[in-house]
Amino acid sequence: EDKRSLASRPNSPHVLPAQAMSGRQSMLAAVRRALASAAPLDPSSAPRLAPRALGELVRPGAILPSGVVVVARRSASGGRAGVAAASYRGPFATAHPSKEENMPFAARHLAVRFGGDGAADAGAHAKGGGGSGLHLRALRYIVAALAAAEVALWASSQASAPEAEEQTVSNWSGTQHVDCARYAQPESVDALAKAVEWAHTHRRRLRPVGSALSPNGAAFNAEGMISLALLDELVRVDRDAMTVTTQAGARVLELVEKLRPHGLTLANYASIREQQIGGFTQVGAHGTGALIPPLDETVTSLALVTPGEGLIRLSEDDEDPERFRMARCAIGSLGVASEVTLRCVPAHRLLERTWTATHEEVWKNHDKWLKEHQHIRYMWIPHTDTVVVVGSNPLAANAKVPKPTSAFKSEAKKTEPMVKLLKEVAPGVDATGMGFGQLRDELLKVNPLDLEHVKRCNAAEAEFWRRNAGTRCDWSDQILGFDCGGEQHVYEIAFRTGDDVDSNTGADLAYMKELLAMIEREGIPAPAPIEQRWSAGSKSPLSPATNDGRDPSKPGLHSWIGIIMYLPSPDPTSRAAITEAFKSYAKKEEAALGEKYGIRTHWAKIELPEGDEERREARARIESRYPGADRFRKIRAELDPKGVLGNNLIEGLLGDPKRVLRPGQSRSDWMAPGEYVEAAIRSARRATRSTTDA
Q1: Residues in the chain with pLDDT < 70?
Q2: d(Cα 548, Cα 356) in Å, to the nearest integer?
């Protein structure tokens, strides 16, 4: 009999002849005799016993005499098993593992999970049938089926996937980059709808992206992005209603030119005009003008391609306009805007005047200037007493267009203070032909984080603006756009400063006083300018200038303030140092002034903090400062229930924090099927390309 037969007859005195027994069988026989006689076993009468081997073979009722019970338990420390209530003693009395612990992992797992008898299953498995053998075969079949399903799902997703390519995308300021695995550019609304439906069906993120201008990369997503750059047609112009309907991929500067023959233009413009209309409105872009709202408020209707409900049309005239107001400024997270209708104004020229003022002059004249100018902005120059004021008003329709004026006609004379400083601090740099922006970059490049050096640069810039004082006249889109400078970090906030321009609380200038004092107190090497603008409010609940929760009869007066740090050098070490300094600068502003003034950060300039605690704090701030945040999530659950149009920024600040991907994680918590195969193929392709390049 083998050891299993012997084990099945625990009380039998039968012992095989010595010549027919193996070493282990001899060992068992010796142990049985010792236990039966209740006398200590002479070690010389049995081969050396291995506790591990004994533990594998000894089972209660197998070789012990009748009535002897051994209870084995793993100790709390996870070391030797404890033996209790055993009626035998001696040098070979040893603890033994449980039967599940003796089994191979897969069989042990099945025994524990399905309640099988580990020892019996192990015996059956050894004979090639039953118990664990069946379980193991079932496990293999399950794994094989899951692998086949994964491949099938991947093949299915690939068969219906939108046409796309891998692409590296960088933002305008060069501060954000993403290697996008699937960058799609549909050529029709039908193709757009199919792409969004595919993302929803297969649970793949496909984030809408405009011109990729946002300093924070608000649209960036490594898994997938969808651009409407090829959907840029003018749909119709209604001169009577003074509206224009355009596909969302049209750029602002192109739309303006198409409106010009109709005698119309947009109500306001941001500093640049390369934005796509979809992104322009979705992030709550704004210009300046105390009576003019942000651009999202000029949207009267839109067509939205949503994952949850397909193509829907929303408008201000809907019986319940809540969805519409939420969707027109939702950072692309409720649907992909395919078509947008905006209110227009008659095309007009603006006469702009630029001058410099001291802080005292601004305190004294601010209310008057704000009311006197349709558009006005201040450019505060830190560490100086200079404020650059730029104000403009419409030129009468029949008035003669005046010629530009300037304190100094020669550009060389205007930039002379900056050129002089550059020759002093960087004598090896040839300033010939350099304009204002390039000169500022070259000056800051010398030592961008040295406080005294930055002060000298700011003083030279203040003198440039004094020499640049004057007037100019042009079409509104040409006047309101301006050069923002080179690569940079920007942090811009908005807060309410009154119900309208006639009831300004003074919070706008109070904020600036405190901000400038903080910069001086903290010794921050803040370059120029700190730009301050104004706008009326918006009914969009997620607009940084929202009037949500306020008296709807009041337009609201909001001030926008943006701080900046430039990245004048391509050197990675320098850029990293400036980036960290800027993060500290913005964090100090929020800590000192955020709660007091109830500031809301521009959606194109807000960052998702890196630490868990900081993220919770940022999310809590948004909850407290946007009364509509909870309503947004309810609407999103209907229009994009799987969050396929989101990214880490959206999920971390507004959506579901569980969907935020950790560094190195390639998928969100909902485990998109088929992605394992796709990720492997993508890795293989990249490896092949790397080998080829090498």
Answers
A1: 1-132, 664-694
A2: 36
